[in-house]
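haha ok so turns out i had the wrong file open the whole time. this is the CORRECT one, sorry everyone. sequence first:
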Amino acid sequence: MFQQIKRLLSRLQSQPLTSANIPEVSPPIAGCGFSEHLIQVQGIHVFVRTLGHPSSQAVICWHGFARNGSDFLTLARSLASHYYVICPDTPGRGYSDWVDPDRYQFSFYQSVAVDLLKVFKVSGRVHWIGTSMGGVLGMMMASSPQTRGLIDRLVINDIGPEVPEDAIHRIRQYSSDKQLFRHLSDARDYFEEIYAPFGELSSEEWDLLLVHSLRRLDDGSLTQHYDPAILNNSEAAKTRPWLGRCLPRSPVVCW
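then structure:
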C-alpha cells in the first residue's frame, strides 16, 4: 500500500491531474477503509476503529497490556467481508483518554467493553479476539454471569490460565522505563528489539506498528503512546492463575 501511494504521488507530481491519468485501484476488500470513532462512555473518550458492515456479526479485538487497537489492522481487513470488526484502544493507550490510575484495572475495562457494545448497537453475541491482556479480559467476559451471554466465540493469543514470571519481568522491564527518541529511526530500532517476539513482520508492518506506538511531546521528542500510570494497577502482570471453569451450555472453550 505504501509503495502504491508513493508511485501515485510521483505520477501526479510529474504530470497534470486529469481523469485519464488517475489509476483505477481495486481494494482487496470492498470498503476497506476504517471508520474512526471517539466514543464518550463513563465520562471519558475511547478511541475505536471499525471495519465492515454494522449489520454483520460483530468481532471485538482487544489488544495487549501496553499496545493499542491498531495491532489488529491486518486481521480486521481479512475479516471485514463477513464481520463487523471493532478495535478499541483501552483507556490509557493509543488515542483514548488517560484516566485516574486507580481506574486502570480489569473491572473498569470490562464495563467499558459492555458500554461500547451498547453504543455500537451490537445485537446478539460477539466473537472476542484477545491478545495478552485482551485475552484475560475476554476470559473474564466469557466466565462472568453478567457478561457471558455477550460472547459467542473466544479466541485468545499470548495468554493462558497463568502468566509466567519471565513474561511478567519482560513486560515490566520495557513498559516501566520512559523512552525518549529524537528520530523515528531510533524508535524503530527500539521497537524492533522489544517486539521481536511478534514474529516476522514486513517493512510496511513495522512502519505501521511504529507510527501507532508513539506520541510527540511538546519539545518535539517522541515517546511511548501509553500512560506510564497503567503499571500502577497492572493486574495483567500478576501470576495468580486465571482458573476458568466449564460453563454449562456455553460454546466458549474453558480450562
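Confidence is low (pLDDT under 50) at residues 1-6, 15-31, 236-255.
again sry for the mixup
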